[in-house]
Amino acid sequence: MSERTITCCIALVVLLLISLCISGCMTTQQPSANGTAANVTSASNASTPVKELLVATTTSLYDTGLLDYLAPIYEKQYNTHLKITSQGTGKAIDLAQRGDADVLLVHSPSDEVTFMENGNGVNRRSFAYNYFEIVGPASDPAQIKGLSPEDAFKKLKADGANNTANVAFVSRGDGSGTQSAEKKIWKNAGFDYATQIEKSGDWYVEAGKGMGETLQMADQKQAYTLTDEGTFLAYKGNLTLIPVIIKGDSLLNIYSVMSVVPKNNATASITAANTLATFLTDNTTQQLIADYGKDKYGKGLFSPMNATMAKTFKVDNSAPLNATTPAIVFQAGSLATPFKAVKSIFEKDTTGAEVELFSGSSITMIEKVTKMGEKADIVASADADQISRLMVPDNASFTLNFARNAMVLVYTNNSTSASTITKDNWYSVLGQDNVKLVTSDPTSDPGGYRAYMTLVLAESYYKVPDLFKKVVSDHSAITVNKTGANTTIDLTNPKQDNKGLLIPNATGPTYLDLLTSGKADYALVYRSSAVDAGLPYIELPDEISLANLSMSKDYALVQAKTPSGLIPATPIVYGLTIPTRAAHPDLGVAFIKALASDQGAAALNKSGLAPMTPMTATGTVPDSLKSLVSTT
User: Fold this and answer.
1) Considering the chain, what is the average pLDDT of its residues?
2) pTM of the model
């Protein structure tokens, strides 16, 4: 061997050794909460190509450094590189809707629901929470310390409008989850954001920036602002602002992860996206989230979403996270509990799909399809006739009747006259001056207009001619017009006094919330709602309860005038359909089959509903369902 050859061999060996040394020592460095580096060895399986996952996230997860801390751990475990885009929640959602993200990490529940309702995501899980805070100058020029968030905002608005010295508020102004939370507080405080707050004067400044930059601007101006707790702690060392208000239900700040459904229905990226959702909800990662920031701030910047807190906050943190296709179900609110059980039956037998349940008043849920063009796979109404009236034939081809219910009078042990009320004197108790009745919204919810139908029927049944006036008309603009044996209730504009008669709006406390909090004494509701709530209730006679199918003609003597038209009183029958434009009609069929199963019937029974076996249907029923129903 020549000297030159030997020299070349030695050089090659040296280069190889250097290369091995370098590759063996390579690490990815990420900042931790205390500013030190978290050393994480790179994925060593060089034979497997590294996947890339596009993540759209809110600025608070980025500004706090949490994602930078967790990313290398995830990347090593799943051999996947995270490409993270950080911006306000609104912009992050827009990015995902366009198909330019695989995973969405945000903290605006209302916006997340809209995103999911439209079939854009699957496997929505809550993985962390903290709280918003109202921070401001230590001198607290508006003197809001100790107030509720809503009362604090009222004071800020009043002082701002009066040009009180040194009182200003800096808003994110960027469509973020934080700004959504701010708008919710303004609304709860009684203000219309668009007309009374936005651009209302020099006192109110819209930053149009992320949380960190907004905090810095507020600090420079010595103004108040709303911030998430984590970002404030991360920036606290460079600020003179202090937390002024840290308590209040409206300050809860929940972070959720969603896998984005690809626009082309491919499953490769959504399968990878599911690994990130799985990682964030895993017990090991949850502990990392709990510990993050403790070494520097003495407390974690975020709290993990364990099972106890998930139940308290009524959010989902369950596993597994394997679904690639959402089955969208729009349901009447009174179906929430039994349909949750049907969801479990469906998912046990249907591979690759997850039921996404969305609750609301029946007419509101129907109009999401008929007026807003949303593509639900199932629409279920507490009044089957509303599907036939509002959806068939333009938006659906059939109505399937699957359960019956009854109206009852529900109360608590603290309700006025709770110890003496009976099935024989309940109407007299409601007529007392000091008794407060609550119903759901009669303009959009069948349970609402049925409550007033029940009272008209009770007035006739018990022969108490002024019952409706005492209980309803004296406390609202709701009137009745009698023509012979027929009665029409005008519910188009209730204008209740919220004293003797309460009707909650869609965004505030529910009728059950008002009842259990003591703000109302009694509620006329479905039996299933009383059963689900575990509250005592008075059973009403068939002539009043709208429960008896054979009394249809008697009930029909009463009708309600509502914004959506005249609605006759009918026996309470629940109906559902698969909309014509459903994205996944096959999943709609699978859901109905789960509902029609013995387990589905048991779930309805347990919630106080009476399942209809077999189901009945009108219209053109799909061939795949004909074996389950009798056609009328």
Assistant:
1) 91
2) 0.88
